[in-house]
Amino acid sequence: MPHFEFVASSYSSGNGECVEVARNLPRVVAVRDSKQFDGPVFTVSSSPWALFLAYVREP
């Protein structure tokens, strides 16, 4: 398993109710539940992740 460097969103309130994202590996983005550090990790390639972000940022 690769080493991911997870960070919480700048919009997170710090109460542990968010997801964390790691983008430190080439072409891969990893997402996990901030309450479960040892829990499952969802990975996706960077191209679909960029499309997802563009979609959620639309007004």
Concise synopsis of the structure shown:
Pfam families: DUF397. This is DUF397 domain-containing protein. The chain is an alpha+beta fold and about 60 residues long.
Molecular structure report:
The protein is α+β, with helices and mostly antiparallel strands. The chain has a domain at 18-57. It is 20% helix and 32% strand. It contains one helix and four strands. A four-stranded antiparallel beta sheet has the order 1-2-3-4. The termini are far apart. The model has no long low-confidence stretch (mean pLDDT 87). InterPro entries: DUF397 (IPR007278).
Q: What features would you highlight for this structure?
A:
59 residues; alpha+beta; four-stranded antiparallel beta sheet; 32% strand; globular; DUF397 domain-containing protein
Low-confidence stretches: none
Termini gap: 37 Å
The main sheet comes to:
4 strands, antiparallel
H and E string: EEEEH
Helical/strand content category = alpha+beta
Shape: globular
Number of strands: 4
Number of helices: 1
Radius of gyration: 12 Å
Mind sketching the topology for me?
Layout: E1 7-8, E2 19-25, E3 28-33, E4 42-45, H1 46-57
Antiparallel strand pairs: 1-2, 2-3, 3-4
